[in-house]
Specification:
Blueprint lengths: L4 H15 L2 E4 L18 H7 L5 E4 L2 E4 L15 E5 L5 E4 L1 E3 L4 E2 L4 E7 L18 E2 L10 E3 L2 E2 L1 E2 L3 H5 L7 E6 L3 E7 L10 E4 L15 E4 L2 E5 L14 E2 L7 E3 L2 E5 L2 E4 L14 H13 L11 E3 L2 E5 L2 E6 L6 E3 L2 E5 L6 E2 L3 E6 L5 E3 L2 E5 L3 E6 L6 E3 L2 E3 L6 E6 L5 E4 L2 E2 L3 E6 L3 E4 L2 E2 L2 E4 L6 E4 L9 E4 L9 E3 L2 E2 L16 E3 L2 E2 L13 E2 L8 E5 L2 E7 L4 H4 L7 H4 L45 E7 L9
Parallel strand pairs: 1-2, 2-4, 3-5, 4-16, 5-17, 12-13, 16-19, 17-20, 18-21, 19-22, 20-23, 21-24, 22-25, 23-26, 24-28, 25-29, 26-30, 28-31, 29-32, 30-33, 31-34, 32-35, 33-36, 34-37, 35-38, 36-39, 37-40, 38-43, 39-44, 43-45, 44-46, 46-47
Antiparallel strand pairs: 6-15, 7-8, 8-14, 9-27, 10-11, 10-15, 13-14, 41-42, 48-49, 49-50
Length: 622
Amino acid sequence: MKFSPSGLLSLLAMVTSVQATEFHIAPTGSDANPGTRSAPFRSIQRGAEAAQPGDVITVHAGVYRERINPPRGGVSDQKRIVFRAAPGERVAIKGSEIITNWVRLQPDLWQATIPNAFFGSFNPYSDLIHGDWFTAKGRAHHTGAVYLNGDWLTEAATRDEVLKPAGSNALWFATVDATNTTIWAQFPGMDPNAQLVEINVRRTVFYPEKTGINYLTVRGFTLTQAATSWAPPTAEQFGVIGTHWSKVWIIESNLISYSTCCGIALGKYGDEWDNRAESAEGYVGTLTRALTNGWNRATVGSHLVRDNEVSHCEQTGIVGSLGCAFSTITGNSIHDIHVRQLFSGAEMAGIKFHGAIDVVISRNHIYRCGDVSGIWLDWMAQGAQVTGNLLHDNFGNGGDIFFEMQHGPILVANNLLLSKRSLQLNSQGIAFVHNLIAGSIRNLRNDRRSTPFHPAHSTEVAGLYPAARGDSGDYRFFNNLLLAPCKLSALDSSVLPYFCAGNVFTAGTQPSKFDTNALLKPEFDSSVKLTETPDGWYLQIIEDKAWSIEASRKLTTTKLLGKAVVSNQPFENADGSALRLNTDYFGKLRNKSNPFPGPFEISGNEKESFKVWPLTPALPAW
């Protein structure tokens, strides 16, 4: 049979229309419906079960209380399965349920009794937060939570605490017996039955039960109130939304909040070794098993997480052990992470990644993150780039960025590091270029763990490097602007050398012994001030355009940076192309013959106010 060109096009259009279907979800729908616009499904899960590669699930305005467990993904970027909020409509997916049977016991104290059957197989009020590197601070913590009008109350350590008069932080406490879950909660001056009171019921909101659910897009939702578990690098990592050992998800333009532990999880699968390996040797075992379970570019990672707001998570905003590799994290606002500090451990940060090979963390706004850091890259971030981020008011010991047991190469460029501590370093092979560094630097030494390095752009292990053989060092500091109290001299005790050129040191700062041509301005005060306004965040700063002629600087390139000592790999892009840092924080071209120091390429007024968040769309590639 022969077809004319027009007939062939018509046939292709018919095939495409058969293959690509848009399913609609609405609170007024029914899961017995066909899922059309006029007869929508009621649940998002029903849409997930119906969708095939190439299909779109459009969810209309409303609150959906369910956990979405997609049974399949797409097969390519061109044939993804897309979950999206209907354009212009507000859609919330919650891991909580409303409770209205509160009984008053005292003026501000109320009690609700809930049959255990209400929770099904998972009860957050008997589910303890626990795991490797978790510190409970001498009391029990549960994944459950109680919310009053969208904000959470604080779990009391004992029932006696919640029976006392309410203080500035309203408390709750729960017990679970063979039949019922009983919750006591403080609601000062109000009747909870006349308010919106919700409690955690589901561990997660959007998370596939199976691994390998690839090529999904999740766009435009409010995802909130989930009983997520502690997420160490040695265990399966749940978030309000999580990819569960899959590849090439797009998570974009969502509001993600109120997780007892993690917001977005790009982490590993679970196995019998979960939470049994709290040591460096144990994590090497986790890595070895992951390599046999598909830890490679073809199978896992390469996610795009962009333009989300992530807040009010008590462990991390975005977490990922191994499954984060080759991903891009860009345009996100991450704030108010681990601010309650009821528990602690070694895994808290705005972004906490292990195995962040070739990951790009770019153009994010990260602030008000407690112990440990705004960004914490822990083990195996070889090839990572941390560029053009705004970090401030991060109050953990690790400050804005903590690099732990890295061997490089890693690029850190065009960032605004404005917290009291800008950097904590326990690594080698990192290049810091054109940053504004306004906080202290802490140099950790004498860590004797052996950790992996890799062939270029690969998850395979090329070897283990014991830090005791070389300690910290092998850093590069080029063309940075340093403000008090930053002192590069804090790194002078490093065993491996580091290389400095083109930096400007203002009042209260101090160069390192390795900086041979530092431009010293001991009387110059840049008077940096960050201000939030209704339309964004503005940075006021004084700079001297004469800095461009008082010292000669080179454009930073792969050739200039050389190779990281331990891995013997060059500083380059993930595709193997050469770096050329010829644009500034805003994407403005730099003076290639003598670039201006710091993140902004200025040529006019010395005192300026820059809008530093939100930023305009995409920067050009390096």
